[in-house]
Amino acid sequence: MPSTGRMFLQIPGPTNLPERVQRAMDMALINHRGEEFADLTKKILPRLKQVFRTEKGTPVLFPSSGTGAWESALVNTLSPGDGVLCIAIGEFSAGWGRLAKAHKYDVDVLELPWGSGVTEDAVHAKLAQDAGKKYKAVLTIHNETSTGVTTDVRAVRAALDRARHPALLMVDTVSGLACTDLRFDEWGIDVAVTGSQKGLLLPPGLGVLCVSEKALKAMESAQSPRYYFDWAPMIEKNRAGIFPYTPVTTLMYGLDTALDLLMEEGLERVFKRHHRLAEGVRRAVKAWGLKTVALQPQDASNVLTAVYLPEGYNADTLIARTENELNLALGAGLGPLAGRAFRIGHLGWMNELEVLATLSGVELGMKLLNVPFTLGSGVTAAQQWFLETHGK
Ligand SMILES: Cc1ncc(COP(=O)(O)O)c(C=O)c1O
Questions:
Q1: Could you give the C-alpha distances from 144 to 152, 192, 290, in angstroms and in order?
Q2: How does pLDDT run across 330-376, given as a tens digit for each residue?
């Protein structure tokens, strides 16, 4: 591993930390039941609502990873045996369904091909079969991190409305929030789930949810056992700015500053920047003559791009070589994509030059493996796109 220069952490989360966030966390620990911490929480919660684009939703924070937030969404709203429809388009969307099965909910999986998005018709067809309305929740993913596909969450909402189905709409936005548009109120989301280590520009360690009034109502009758992830004491204590147990005080300082950064840039500009950088990467992949895992351009994620290597070349070898020899960490192919695809993360605190350096590192890595393509073609295609859209 080269010992000089920076490490390019271009996995699809955890992301590179902005310096301001890093500095904000370089603090002595404070009393988590004291006034200073309470003021911090009270400053954070309203701005989190802005990030979720909600007025009526309630943000809830746990010291956990995204998986903890998944669990929290289910155990607070469901009872053992309740029906759940999981829309699976990759490793993470299917993973939430596996977690639901582990909790003994009655899980049906709508399995769509890896690389595809979600259509209203496919979801509607499944909901229409549920004449007895046994599904109490529909789980969908905003951004599938294993395939680099973004779901049209509005289409899932539309399918529920068309079927007049009362199930709660639960959205995993672990790798979507604060990278690509999500509108909690407008899209009729009941529970949105995320983690701190992606668009929120923080280290791992916070599971963050936003819950609707309908989800809070469901909580009142939900019988699933819960304690650590119970929303009720959390929401009650949060009113005074404190937590029922020890919160991640250091990350809360970081979150305060990360929210400043997001608000200073403005969410619309954050989304536009992600789109522009992602498009640069997509043009590079095309110039290399390679295929993305995302099957349709309209579903391609602005958060990450999963790329197939040609037959006969091992993506895990590429990833090991760029990491060990070039200080460039890329994401591995997951599940059936292991060894066949690699993932380029282009989310969070990123700019054009970092994307170009990343693409240049991928090119060096692919040449080291003798993958056939024209050296510099991807970097040039991305540069051309950045020039065309400069200042726009
Ligand atoms: C979309 C998505 N959902 C869920 C998870 C699981 O989150 P965590 O690893 O923070 O538990 C991840 C992790 O990368 C993810 O990308």
A1: 11, 14, 20
A2: 999 999 999 999 999 999 999 999 999 999 999 999 999 999 999 99
The pLDDT score that the predictor gives to residue 392 is: 84
**Ligand 1 centroid – CA 345 distance (Å):** 14
State the distance from the centre of ligand 1 to the C-alpha of 151, rounded, in angstroms: 16
Yes or no: say if 344 and 10 are a contact pair by the CB < 8 Å rule: yes
3-state DSSP assignment of residue 243 = coil
Q: Using a 6 Å cutoff on CB, does residue 67 contact ligand 1?
A: yes
Cβ–ligand 1 contact at 145 (below 6 Å): yes
Q: Is 13 in the pocket of ligand 1 (CB under 6 A)?
A: yes
One-letter amino acid for residue 20 of the chain: R
- Interstrand relation of 143-144 and 328-332 (parallel, antiparallel or unpaired): unpaired
- The helix-helix angle for 267-288 and 249-265 (nearest 10°) equals 80
pTM comes to 0.98
CA distances from 353 to 40, 143, 357, 383 (A): 34, 24, 6, 9
For ligand 1, atom 7, name the residue with the nearest CA: 66
